[in-house]
Amino acid sequence: MTLNRKPIQVLEAVHRVMEKVRVLPPETVYYLNSGGRVLAEDLTATNDVPVFTKSAMDGFAVRASDTEGASGDCRIEFKVVEEVPAGASSDYILKKNEAFRIMTGAEVPKSADTVVMFEQSKETEEGFTVRKTFTKGENIAFQGEECLKGDVIVPEGTLINPGVTATLATFGYEYVKVYKKPVVGVLSTGSELLDAGDTLERGKIRNSNTPMVLAQLGRMNIEGRHYHLESDDFNTILKRVREMIEAVDAVITTGGVSVGDYDLLPKIYEALGAEVLFNKVAMRPGSVTTVSAYGDTLLFGLSGNPSACYSGFELFCRPAFLSMMNSRNVYAPFINAVLDENFTKPNPFTRFIRAEVKFTEEGLLVKPSGFNKSNAVTSIAKSNGVIVLPGGTRGFKQGDKVKVMMTDMTSGTDTFRVPDK
Ligand SMILES: Nc1nc2c(c(=O)[nH]1)N[C@H]1C(S)=C(S)[C@@H](COP(=O)(O)OP(=O)(O)OC[C@H]3O[C@@H](n4cnc5c(N)ncnc54)[C@H](O)[C@@H]3O)O[C@H]1N2
Ligand code: MOO
Ligand SMILES: [Mg+2]
């Protein structure tokens, strides 16, 4: 069991997982609950946008031809005949030098073709005057100028972001077809584990992997189910994993995948008759990460070491779960950044280093986010990305360009910089 582990490259490992992914069936959900899901139907415009020709400004709707010849010395006067606030409409036909008082968003009556902003006019007792000739269509948003009824606005397979939610509302999609999200079971193994609320005892540590993985799932808007072990032995783990396979779409276990006497996961996969996709990856940390398939259920055996567990999830679980939801863009973005301190360790295997990426005016700077061994937990807390150093490289120096896999796209910077004139 322990001896025939053949390391494969990270890329190959990711491919093996992704090949096994089965897309979950679609379901219909209320549009306000669809954020973070993937569209299972094209979102088609059910009306033109704008749906009617409307004023883009507060002012007066006129016929442009009536403003012809106006100048500072020769102001042309208009009489206001009606008011059209947003939400209202009018069928009144303008006569020469008549105008509507109109507000932004209000339907422009058929007989008007131009809007004069309040700031471009001088109010008089009965109306206003203008001092320039207006071109037809000024300050008007025309029906269908943004899109036409029947246009495909957002294609099937797109992740629903706030803009898609706005689009769903615009076109009256109160219910929308999306792919099901996987329900993921999370089980940490290890007889040394206590819960967060427990007092430390000799030889024991608090379980940080389950809460971390649940939070990684939460960050993806995916429901994680926390499973427990009443005792950390082969039969109990096997029984629990069997229950999980019945109840969830994917199983994540942490710990017990290495070669120790109590590393039981390899034997569990064997007892299940699961197909082991790989049990060794040429990477650090997480070289013992194991992924198996039991029918359509993927079993992710993440390493017990917290840093290895964290990057194992980001590398293998995240794209697999996004793919189960039929998302197209399932991989974390890789960016180029400049290393902001020396990293002298040689890298026989691909190395993943929890890191802090800083968005500075000069560009992207990155440095390891603290104590960075496989068993580290605190450096994860300070990271928003993971530096990826290719295998077969010696150390890296400050100023070298490195690749970073972004894991947290919500982190900001401490200075607001907007380019001024
Ligand atoms: N003879 C060898 N020993 C080890 C090898 C090896 O190749 N040969 N690989 C080492 C590497 S590398 C890693 S990584 C670990 C992987 O260990 P396991 O995945 O089997 O995980 P455990 O043994 O259960 O635990 C490892 C470590 O992590 C702590 N841990 C476990 N679970 C949690 C949790 N839920 N929360 C916080 N911390 C956890 C555990 O106490 C151990 O310290 O194996 C090496 N050994
Ligand atoms: O496989 Mo382990 O490299 O230390 O996480
Ligand atoms: Mg172990």
Automatic annotation (TrEMBL):
SUPFAM superfamilies: MoeA C-terminal domain-like, MoeA N-terminal region -like, Molybdenum cofactor biosynthesis proteins. Keywords: Magnesium, Metal-binding, Molybdenum, Molybdenum cofactor biosynthesis, Transferase. Pfam families: MoCF_biosynth, MoeA_C, MoeA_N. Pathway: Cofactor biosynthesis; molybdopterin biosynthesis. It is an enzyme of class 2 (transferase). InterPro entries: MoaB/Mog-like_dom_sf (IPR036425), MoaB/Mog_dom (IPR001453), MoeA-like (IPR038987), MoeA_C_domain_IV (IPR005111), MoeA_C_domain_IV_sf (IPR036688), MoeA_linker/N (IPR005110), MoeA_linker/N_sf (IPR036135). Its cofactor is Mg(2+). Its EC number is 2.10.1.1. Belongs to the MoeA family. This is Molybdopterin molybdenumtransferase. It comes from Corticicoccus populi. The lineage of its organism: Bacteria, Bacillati, Bacillota, Bacilli, Bacillales.
